[in-house]
Amino acid sequence: MSITTQPPSPSTDQLRASVAGPVLAPGDADFDAELTGFNVASTPDATIVVGATCADDVAAAIRYARTHALRVGVRATGHGAVIEGPGTLIVTTARMNDVVVDPVARTARVGAGARWRDVAAATAPHGLTGLVGSSSGVGVVGYTLGGGLSPLGREFGFAADRVHSIELATADGSVRAVDPTSDPDLFWALLGGRDGFGVVTAIEIGLVELATLYGGGIFFSGDSASDVLHAWRSWAPMLPEEAGTSVAITRLPPDPNLPPPLQGQTVVHLRFTHTGDPDRAESLLAPIRNAGPVLLDTIGVMPVAALDAVHMDPPGPLPAADRGTTLSALPAEAVDALLSVAGPAVDSPLAIVEIRLLGGALRHPQGPANAVTGRDAGFAVTGIGVCAGPLGDRVDSHLRAVTAAVAQWTCGALLSFCGLPAAERTALWPADSRARLLEVRHRYDPAGTFSPTGADDLD
After folding, report:
1. Which segments constitute the FAD-binding PCMH-type domain (predicted)?
2. Which domain CATH number covers 193?
């Protein structure tokens, strides 16, 4: 019988002397805790972990990794995948969570480890907001580099469109400021290409002036899923750009922290946001309110800092897997196909199967061009499953069934919602963009230090 063991770590004495944060190896008391993040489906493995406190720590870690032929991965909140495994140095950035707001310029400089809740705490007193997603617990940098799809996106675009500059530690162990003027190709590639170019240590983002909005959710009985989804597919595309919406078949646990009407129920959750006049918003919402029996209605005027209340994503760590696609259209046949594989009558391990309306300002960059995928799509479909419990081992097959059901209307995917391993993401970009991403990666990381697969996965 053979036993596979972690190869011995190279001496870390010099690295420990070069960085202010902790340097940890397997067997150290805090090693596992340093790597644990929101998605606990798996805990990454590594040869060395560096808990960076600043850009200089990151640069020193990269130089050490290059000297010892280690690949480099980065982990902030642990919502997404990370380069990991034996022969890998992982930089954790949670300690780099500073946020500095310039209310006059309407910008914020955001550290690599900051979450959207950190940004909201700093911007809300000024009546400003960033283009936060459905959960304020997500890290700002990873979310933004992947595109950053906000409930406010139809009016303001992707979060990547609002980036002014990027501080980046590159494969040569230096730290550089990247913007559309100094490094236009690298700036383009980082925003939407995300992986394999270096470690982002901070970004400067533009903010929008918005203190409140009209939004929330309506929970319909799961028995009305067909009626609600068909009504939504006709209603949603008629909304103006200042309105955003999604609808999800949601299987809720018997959690006493949930409102009593929702505990242990399969429901249809309609989400809605509107940044304009509440009376106008209410009139837009009226046609969908009676699409089915209502269990709970939370829609009203809310501060933008409370945007989490729209989607009501789980706040705590979960062992989750996801997979998604984008659609050019959502005909009745597509809704029926989704219901056949993920509707309330299906014994499914998927906690959420969501359809989200795209379009509006998401269709075109709102600033300098970038590599964000999915701009031509009208809708996004995403499935999320919890890899635990009696059906946990069936999550992957059910996720694949969701994307297969709507395959004939598929037109790509959003990078952060595709759920694909790095080697399968190449089709997200057209051939010319893929070639440009590969050239930029080779230019700034010729040895593949940051390559997600250890190879040229864009080839």
Report:
1. 42-210
2. 3.30.465.10
DSSP 210: -
Q: Are 375 and 340 in contact (CB under 8 A)?
A: no
pLDDT in tens, 363-407: 999 999 999 999 999 999 999 998 877 777 899 999 999 999 999
Q: Taking the chain, what is the end-to-end CA distance rounded to the nearest angstrom?
A: 38
pLDDT digits (tens, 9 = 90+) for 337-353: 999 999 999 999 999 99
Among residues 288, 169, 175, the alpha carbon closest in space to that of 229 is found at: 288
Does position 456 have pLDDT exceeding 60, yes or no?
Answer: no
**Does one domain contain both 226 and 190?**
no
DSSP 18-44: H-SS-EE-TTSTTHHHHH--SBTT---
- Residue from 216, 247, 223, 267 nearest 334 by CA: 247
Distances (CA, A) of 402 to 231, 250, 347, 358: 20, 14, 14, 19
Together in a domain, 288 and 321? yes
Residue 9's closest CA among 63, 44, 47, 45?
47
Residues 319 and 363 in one domain: yes
Q: Which helix (H) or strand (E) holds 129?
A: strand 128-129
Q: Are 219 and 204 contained in the same domain?
A: no
| Residues 79 and 107 reside in one and the same domain | no
In a domain, 286, yes or no: yes
Domain boundary among 92, 114, 147: 92
Q: Residue 359 belongs to what domain range? A: 212-417
Clarify whether residues 121 and 73 are in a common domain: no
Distance CA 264, CA 253 (A): 5
| 61, 92, 123 - which closes a domain | 92
**Residue 124 covered by a domain:** yes
Question: How far is CA 291 from each of CA 259, 281, 299, 457, rounded to the nearest angstrom?
Answer: 21, 17, 15, 45
- Rg from Cα positions in the chain: 22
Say which DSSP state 287 is in.
H
Query: Cβ atoms within 10 A of the Cβ of 309, count?
Result: 15
